[in-house]
Specification:
There is one protein chain. The protein is α+β, with helices and mostly antiparallel strands. The protein folds into four domains: about 220 residues, Rossmann fold, CATH 3.40.50.300; about 180 residues, no CATH class; about 100 residues, no CATH class; about 140 residues, no CATH class. The chain is built from 20 helices and 28 strands. Strands 13, 14, 15, 16, 17, 18 and 19 form a seven-stranded mixed beta sheet that branches. A six-stranded mixed beta sheet has the order 6-7-8-3-9-10, sandwiched between helices. The two termini are about 40 Å apart. The structure holds adenosine-5'-diphosphate (ADP) and magnesium ion. The site of adenosine-5'-diphosphate has 12 residues, from β2 and α1.
């Protein structure tokens, strides 16, 4: 049985315009140990013969036997295995991977060796044998023709395949190098079957064992020149079916080599992926709401351990009742007028809702200052963007919030005595007051709400007539704008300024001169109100004033806030008195506070059959509308996010397509060496996956920059771990999808076509 046998082999090329014969009726037998010179005119079919033997070209007629086994039934994968096992190819135009070093080129053929060190040593040994030990780190593209062929020969030896096919290996070399290469080839391949196509028979004559001349696709003559040492042991059993693990490992090795040895392509891919990472970061931040808990269905502000209580008959709960309830249920604290807890004031510039709290709520950990001790002090937790130094000057609330600054909440002024900045700008703002400070805030907010407008408030008005010249008083009306710039404990006063006579006219009450002070009693809400105007009573319905007013109160020059025009100022004591009076028989909801929700829940059952109805503050309102709108927003965000990922895939893929396709020649060379397609495929994936590392670093750097830059903190939605997971997934998706597109294009054409078309270019 011949080692390799061609029985009546025919190969016909069919193209659009014509049919040409590559080879026909070829009957040849070869043994290992032979060194066969193949000659013939150009176009006679020499290359076709070699291509058929290597399985790079299919044959239409006859049968090719390897170690007695017919091959006509082979499919692509079989040929790959065949090449891997039997064949090394040496081309005229040097089939080495230009971007790889000499060493890497040889190691390519040694991938079956698992240990990298061992692999390296074997490669070094082979390169010494072909005389290239001085050029190990030289890139393929920097080598001379002779050196390239030496590398290819070393690689062929590395593969240790029994057949070496060399198609005019010296075609591009000068005669001295040609001779050297042929000698080398002969010397290192004594136990192999070598078929060398040459146009110069002279250069192989000294050692060729056989000479085949091809003419017009057929064998013109076939001559034995000298004896050779036949090698008889078979190789077929030698290789086992490569498993998945091996494929992955080899793909990984090859992928990392590709990543390292193509700096330009690698850098380019990395830049693209970094852009993708940054893009994903922005998009994920933009779609951030998608991953935040949506609280639109909440009825109350949930505080751990808060229980909301009402009377079943709807009547207000008295202070005494509250106290008794707290005792009965073992609550730590209670708040009869808990309006403020469920009120959130929108702070435009901060773009977040403020949650109010006092002592019984969880600490938010102060970074600067201290907790409030006075009624007009507040401790805040705000996003770090609230700290930025220069912002619009037109509005109080646009000023940076710093320790010691004054902020306006609910029409009251507070000094920031303690503060914590948080980089997580999705957290709600928290404002913590003293218990009585919070009460005042509640009163103030409630007074400003529309609910109270139907009620009649009685209030003492105290004005100072002689101050009228210092006022800017073109205002013909007055809004109720509570503004406690003058809280004097114990003092019961509402301070106001306006045209006193007009006010008197409206009030219809008597005016009492009492030294410098004129006391009025004013039926505020009996005077008429403008529902469209901030929701509370204005003295005069047809006028809206909106400018700041200076006024001297108690000899001190004051200025109101610009927004609301003329204002009332209430002392806190008076405010409290008015509100106590009012809520006494109008406000029906109260809150009890327990250590935690667990205890609060236990209290619910205690109150089960009483006159009270209690519910935990985490109760949610079942609302179809809310659920629908949430669903739509989630779907919308998801579509937006996925669309963006798809765009990034397209962007990265199109941008890198050309550069990637330029490596087709390299891949074809690897395939011609018998490196299996799955390995190369996986290597392309790996090469792309490696670019995730710089992309991840870029995302981390961006996150850090955002974290440290207050201004940016306002623009970007803070990303929680889930957000980063999503970015990671998105990047992975991009890398995989882009690799997939590339792989599909890279492997569209056959090896031979790719080698012919692209070569190493
Ligand atoms: P050689 O290597 O001896 O110069 P080839 O084997 O390349 O000759 O070519 C043999 C014949 O087959 C030629 O007539 C050539 O035109 C034809 N041929 C080779 N490759 C192809 C191909 N891919 N498509 C069409 N015809 C081909
Ligand atoms: Mg040829």
């Amino acid at each position: 049985m011949a080692f390799l046998k061609l029985a009546n082999i025919g190969k016909i090329y069919v193209s659009e315009s014509n049919i040409s014969v590559g080879i026909r009726g070829v009957n040849l037998e070869f043994e290992r140990g032979e060194f066969v010179a193949v000659t013939g005119e150009s176009g006679s079919g020499k290359s076709t013969l070699l291509n058929v033997i290597s399985g790079m070209d299919t044959y239409e007629e006859g049968e090719l036997y390897i170690e007695g086994e017919p091959t006509s039934h082979y499919i692509q994968a079989d040929w790959e295995e065949f090449r891997q096992k039997y064949v090394s190819f040496i081309f005229q135009d040097y089939n080495i991977v230009d971007s790889f070093t000499v060493l890497e080129n040889v190691e390519l053929a040694l991938m079956h060796i698992e240990n990298p060190k061992e692999r390296r040593n074997r490669a070094l040994e082979l390169l010494r044998r072909v005389g290239l030990e001085k050029y190990l780190k030289q890139r393929g593209s920097k080598l001379s023709g002779g050196q390239k062929q030496r590398t290819v020969i070393a690689r062929a030896l590395a593969k240790d395949s029994p057949i070496i096919l060399a198609d005019e290996p010296t075609g591009n070399l000068d005669s001295v190098s040609s001779r050297e290469i042929m000698e080398l080839l002969h010397e290192v391949s004594r136990d192999k079957l070598v078929l060398v196509v040459t146009h110069d028979f002279g250069e192989v004559e000294p050692f060729a064992t056989r000479h085949i001349r091809i003419y017009d696709g057929g064998v013109e003559y076939d001559r034995i020149l000298r004896k050779y040492e036949p090698v008889s042991d078979g190789v077929r059993e030698k290789t086992e079916k490569p498993g998945l693990k091996k494929t992955l490992r080899q793909g990984m090795t090859l992928g990392s080599t590709r990543f390292r040895s193509m700096p330009k392509l690698t850098a380019f891919l990395c830049i693209l992926m970094i852009l993708a990472g940054v893009g994903l970061f922005v998009i994920t931040s933009f779609c951030g709401e998608l991953f935040l808990e949506n609280e639109t269905n909440d009825i109350f502000q949930h505080i751990n351990g808060r229980l909301v209580v009402v009377r079943r008959d709807g009547s207000p709960i008295t202070e005494a009742e509250c106290e008794a309830l707290a005792q009965q249920t073992g609550a730590e604290n209670y708040m009869r007028f808990d309006y403020v807890l469920d009120t959130a004031e929108y702070r435009g510039s901060l773009n977040r809702y403020v949650s109010w709290q006092y002592g019984y709520q969880q600490d938010f950990g102060l970074r600067e200052g201290r907790w409030p001790v006075a009624d007009d002090e507040v401790a805040l937790r705000v996003p770090v963007s609230a700290r930025r130094e220069s912002r619009g000057e037109y509005d109080d609330s646009d000023l940076p919030i710093l320790l010691g600054s004054t902020i306006e909440l609910g029409g009251l002024r507070y000094t920031v005595c303690g503060i914590t900045y948080t980089a997580d700008n999705t957290l709600p703002l928290l404002a913590r007051f003293t218990e009585s400070g919070m009460k005042l805030l509640g009163y103030s907010l409630y007074l400003k709400s529309t609910e109270i407008s139907s009620a009649i408030l009685r209030a003492d008005l105290v004005g100072k007539g002689e101050d009228s010249e210092s006022r800017v008083l073109d205002s013909k009306s007055m809004e109720l704008n509570l503004y406690n710039f003058d809280i004097v404990p114990g003092e019961k006063k509402i301070l106001y300024w306006s045209e006193l006579d007009e006010l008197q006219a409206f009030s219809g009450k008597e005016k009492e001169a009492d030294g410098a002070t004129i006391n009025y009693t004013l039926d505020l809400f009996g005077l008429g109100r403008r529902p469209d105007y901030y929701g509370y009573g204005a003295v005069r319905p047809d006028f809206s004033a909106s400018r700041s007013v200076s006024v001297r109160l108690d000899g001190v020059e004051r200025k109101t806030v610009d927004r609301y025009g003329p204002s009332f100022a209430l002392s806190s004591a008076l405010l409290e008195e008015i509100m106590e009076d009012f809520i006494k028989d109008s406000y029906s909801q109260s809150s009890l506070f327990f250590k935690n929700d667990e205890q609060a829940r236990a209290a619910v059952s205690k109150l089960d059959r009483s006159v009270y109805f209690a519910v935990l503050s985490n109760a949610k309102q079942a609302s179809l509308d809310g659920a629908m709108s949430r669903l739509f927003s989630v779907i919308g965000n998801m579509v937006l996010w996925l669309g963006s990922v798809a765009f990034l895939i397209l962007f990265v893929s199109l941008s890198s397509s050309k550069a990637m396709m330029a490596t087709r020649g390299d891949l074809a060379i690897m395939r011609s060496m018998g490196i299996r397609v799955p390995v190369i495929r996986f290597a392309v994936y790996m090469q792309m996956l490696f670019t995730l590392i710089p992309a991840a670093i870029a995302v981390a750097v961006l996150a850090l920059v955002l974290f440290l830059t207050p201004g940016l903190n306002a623009a970007f939605m803070f990303l929680h771990p889930m957000g980063y997971v999503l970015i990671g997934l998105g990047l992975l998706l991009v890398a995989l999808a882009v690799s997939k597109r590339h792989v599909r294009k890279l492997f569209r054409d056959s090896v031979k076509k790719t080698i012919k078309a692209g070569g190493n270019a």
